[in-house]
Amino acid sequence: MMSVLRRLGARLGILLVVLSVSGCLGIRADESVRVGLNVDEPSPDPAYNVPAGPTPGAAPDTIIRDFLRAEEVTAERLAVAQSFLTTRMVAEWEPGISTEVIDSADSVVISYRGDGWYDVKANLVARIDAAGRAVTVTPGSRASTSMRLERVDGQWRIGQADADFGRWVRRGNLQQVLRPQRIYYPAANGRTLIPDVRWLPVTRLATGLTRALIGPPPAYLEGAVRTGLGSARLSVDAVPVDGSVATVPLIASAAFSVLATRVDAWGQLVATLTEAPNISAVRVTLEETPLQVPGVQPPVLAAAELGFRTLDPAPGVKPVVRVGDRILSVDFDTLLGPGVDLGTLPSAFPRVPATWGRLALSFTGSELAAVGDNGTGLARYRADGSIEPEGFADRLTGPAYDRDGWLWVGGRPFDKEAQARLWTIDSNAEPFEGSGPAAKPIVASWLVDRLPIDVAFPVDGTRIAVVSTDATGKNSRLDVAGVARDADGTPTTLAGNTIRLGTALSQIREVVWLSPTDLAVLAGPKGKAQPYLVTLGDVITPLGGVEGADHITTAGGARNLAVRDVEGHLLVRAGASWQPLPEGLSDLVPPGR
């Protein structure tokens, strides 16, 4: 009974998080993101708008418009859409190869090219590839395709289309076709499950989630995660769900003779499939024989039963605030309370001169880092003193600590031939004297010709978010990539590929992780930047309500998101508005962000 209660509690928590960051998959028309798709908890049996078939005697442009509406369904409900096609086109058409999300049916423009061919264009919001990866597009982008119509028994039907045409879906109807889902992989080191996000069909969700897990992990997580399902295959076409228990039937292979592989596979399947609203437990079979893991009794309700654990912020570690040159340790709730007396707060570190800023606090709260105003100096502070590592770069980003105590910073190397744009320093190394350990370069091929301007880590430390510009300081972008480490946890490299998020936003300036799947960014012109929430599924939510911001941070998740406005005031998110923190605070620094 307690397991069931915990499961219900966890599901409620997920729902609250999703509702708090629901927004739109799409672009801005001007300086604000237009709210469109609401990403709410999916129902087990979604309601569908079932379109009508072709109208007898309809003109070619009407056939095309009605077809575009009819194909806004999942693969199991394509019969009506197929009725607009010739027999040959039904056999050739693969709607799942790509989904182009368009703004509305009113934006569709059809023009006759000749020889039966029609050009079709619409305002494009986003593209979702066959793997379920969504990418927002820049403002003003257009979806375009061509279709050739033919007469069949006196009626116009679509006989050909561009080879890359999959389907077009209006943004308001996307949730009846695809929804963002978490897909889990074990971290390469340890017993933690790391989420990826894919847009998957809402029907046959158990099967879709399982198929998304089978095969290698996504390229942007290479070296950072592993999988127990790399060579797995389903023995049937669909994953059955009996009551609330999903049974995943796999074909036996040599890989499953290894206990660690069986544990990883089952853990991934449990964490991923129980994201579906109608699944609360998972069984796994190999050739109809239950998967064997010592000490585990199927069905499994949670990955914790297989030894996986959730990584939370360090218990008892408080954020620090800056008041002038003093660094004070404070409970965040105290800051929100009435009449807080900053003078009574304990000083956690030596005084930090005003010429040192962009502070970061280690995961354990025992060390603070700061960057000099000249962009070349990096200082580390502990309760009993401070040291400055030997210089290695200029135009340094603000520093960031990962969970394992590695201090990260980006910049432009003094050695103009060097390819590194990121460096790490082991803050666990002793003694804490002199200049400390040297900064270790980390080369990422996708950063070689760019300049990082901000870096951030989630609590798990498995991925890094990097905001960078080109060499001229323009064309900013937000990339997320996995961090590969050796057996001791030392960072060795970043994945050679990234996922790029928030491409609909211009001039991204800063980023902070709010959860394993959600980030917050500042984007916009200097002095007018605004905060946005961005998910790994590229759902973007504008927050607004700030007259320009120059810094963003969090004391824990979206509910404790904080910004500093251009006048130097710290504000914390309170519902749909912002609550000012006490006067005199210039920085709020949470641990391990």
UniProtKB/TrEMBL annotation:
Keywords: Lipoprotein
Domain of life: Bacteria
Family annotation (InterPro entries): GerMN, LpqB_N
Domain called GerMN: residue spans: 206-295
One protein family per Pfam: LpqB_N
This protein's name: Putative Lipoprotein
